[in-house]
Amino acid sequence: MDVLDSVPRSVLGYPVKTRTQIVMTFLVPVIFELLVYIVLTTADILVTIEHFRNGNPTWGWFTLSLIWLPSVVCFCSIISTPERWPEQIGCDERTWHFLFANIAILVFFPFAALYRFNRRIFWSIEALFHDKNTYGRAQSVAKILETSPCELYHFLQAFLQAAPQMMLQLYILLREGTFRNYDTATAQVISVVFSFLTMATIITSYQRFESQKIVGRCYPWSTPEQATTRRKELLRCTSTAEAMLATKSPSIAPEADPIVPNIMRNFYSRYGNDEDPVSETNISFTTPSSPRKTLNVDAINFNRQQSKAHHDPFVNFTDDDKLHEINVFDTVDRVETRQRPSGRSVSFKLRDTIEELQEMDHYLRSTEDIRNVTDDSDDEYLKPDEFDAVPKKPAPPTPEATPGMFHRVSVFRNMLLFNAEAFIKEKVPRLPEGMFDHTETNRTAKRKVVETDQYDGDAISLPSRRQTIVGLEQDDMVGKTVLFVGWVMFLLMRMLSLSTFYVFFPLFFWMLVANHYLLMIACIIYEVRLHEKLERYFFYLFLAYMYVFSLLEFKIRFIHVRWWYIGYIGIVMLENVAMLVVWFNLGVFESWWFYFLHHTIIVSGVLSTICFLFYYAFLRPKAKVLFVNE
């Protein structure tokens, strides 16, 4: 298995080299994320300091708490997961080391995140110095793909730090009198811009995560044991189409006809063989007493016009003259054959014709079905005498009816039953236990039918149904770039609409957000009613909060993906337009800043729609199909 199997191998349909895959998939995105993280963290710290310096401790504490919130939630999530603790029960050295490492990450989370980014950059550059399919390349890519709890912190940062930080700083900027301090406003603008970039990066990376996870992608913050177990289970239980073709490549060439060697062997035994007579079969069929015959081939045989104009040399000869000339040619040919023994050729002499006639006569005499043929009729067909007479030989016995014909119907019936059971299990939720459990007698009867059907040569060969897993490949560099720009524009439209609407109508703002939140919870519960257990209530609450700003296929797999995205984007666009119309027409403002926000919201909405349509039409990833091993 190639270490870069999960990495896109082409860009815009053109295959790329492995080094280009590493640069475009690992090195460039990690460097971009590192720069965005450094600027965002620095800008948030500066905003906090400016708020305390300007005499606004409330805004300062809010900003500082949002900086620490992702780290605290990540620490609680890791500590509360039993799979992450050491296997030995009790307070030993490994337990204290585990607690100390996570507390250090909690306190010094910026340095832990920087270490994670720099480590991935180092191994990405190291992988470029190794050739394909080498141990160094495989080790470097494995180090890049190593899981880490810092990835969970980076994911939570987008929704617990960047999203609320944007809302808070935009609200502060839009309030009256906030532009007096230029340093604070500059830090706030930088914080807002890079918060957009952080959210767009995470949303682009996890856009269709569940559809990619079922075909090989793992959570980047899972434990190494979980990731290894997941990969081994996927390799053991599934196989790709290429692997199936490599292991089971049916030959389309026709099978060798066993009659053809016998025909050629008889031909060479009678007319000779040019090739090296090493074969014992050819020697056994060649008699030393029979002279070798040659087949003379001239250029006239390859000229279509001359061959058509060629006539029989004996056309004006009588029968006696033909016999005389043929005997003479036969004698001369035998002398030439003794002098020139090499060369494959055949001359059809009178003696060969007589031998063939004798063989035909012997064959006709040996058959007793048609005898005593009379010529007393003018018809062109010959009528045998005693046409209605009882044949002397008894008729062959009638073949007994074998049960194979009925087995073919039983195989077809079993296939229909299997398809019906699979369809019911997939579509009907909460089936009664033991509904499709077949008894042992039925299994024994089916096993006997299958064993008997294996010996039935006339049974039809029906195609077997194989269960498949359909997922998605990861986006290439161009697709990620277009999708990233689309989400940046979408988030810009969404955040500006919510923040500006909250400045003028805070009560209606909370009513709109609450209704949207409840609608997302209802949609999530409706989506997971068939293929998920309703036991992740707290996580569904957090997922609905994420859906206030963007849409991710995360932790739940959408059944109707197209309707989800069309409905969500349509609802969000409708809400944004409604908020824009209300505050622009009913709000009281005098600054040009709000006119600029009005045009920015409209332009960003149009650009995001164009990017999404272009991505869906031309750049969306292809489906990846895995076959479940039986």
Automatic annotation (TrEMBL):
<dbReference type="InterPro" id="IPR050895">
    <property type="entry name" value="XK-related_scramblase"/>
</dbReference>
<keyword id="KW-0472">Membrane</keyword>
<feature type="transmembrane region" description="Helical">
    <location>
        <begin position="538"/>
        <end position="559"/>
    </location>
</feature>
<keyword id="KW-1003">Cell membrane</keyword>
<comment type="similarity">
    <text>Belongs to the XK family.</text>
</comment>
<keyword id="KW-1133">Transmembrane helix</keyword>
<protein>
    <recommendedName>
        <fullName>XK-related protein</fullName>
    </recommendedName>
</protein>
<keyword id="KW-0812">Transmembrane</keyword>
<feature type="transmembrane region" description="Helical">
    <location>
        <begin position="565"/>
        <end position="586"/>
    </location>
</feature>
<dbReference type="GO" id="GO:1902742">
    <property type="term" value="P:apoptotic process involved in development"/>
</dbReference>
<dbReference type="GO" id="GO:0043652">
    <property type="term" value="P:engulfment of apoptotic cell"/>
</dbReference>
<dbReference type="GO" id="GO:0005886">
    <property type="term" value="C:plasma membrane"/>
</dbReference>
<feature type="transmembrane region" description="Helical">
    <location>
        <begin position="185"/>
        <end position="206"/>
    </location>
</feature>
<feature type="transmembrane region" description="Helical">
    <location>
        <begin position="22"/>
        <end position="47"/>
    </location>
</feature>
<feature type="compositionally biased region" description="Basic and acidic residues">
    <location>
        <begin position="374"/>
        <end position="391"/>
    </location>
</feature>
<feature type="transmembrane region" description="Helical">
    <location>
        <begin position="59"/>
        <end position="80"/>
    </location>
</feature>
<dbReference type="InterPro" id="IPR018629">
    <property type="entry name" value="XK-rel"/>
</dbReference>
<dbReference type="GO" id="GO:0070782">
    <property type="term" value="P:phosphatidylserine exposure on apoptotic cell surface"/>
</dbReference>
<feature type="transmembrane region" description="Helical">
    <location>
        <begin position="593"/>
        <end position="618"/>
    </location>
</feature>
<feature type="region of interest" description="Disordered">
    <location>
        <begin position="374"/>
        <end position="402"/>
    </location>
</feature>
<feature type="transmembrane region" description="Helical">
    <location>
        <begin position="152"/>
        <end position="173"/>
    </location>
</feature>
<feature type="transmembrane region" description="Helical">
    <location>
        <begin position="482"/>
        <end position="502"/>
    </location>
</feature>
<feature type="transmembrane region" description="Helical">
    <location>
        <begin position="95"/>
        <end position="115"/>
    </location>
</feature>
<feature type="transmembrane region" description="Helical">
    <location>
        <begin position="508"/>
        <end position="526"/>
    </location>
</feature>
<dbReference type="Pfam" id="PF09815">
    <property type="entry name" value="XK-related"/>
</dbReference>
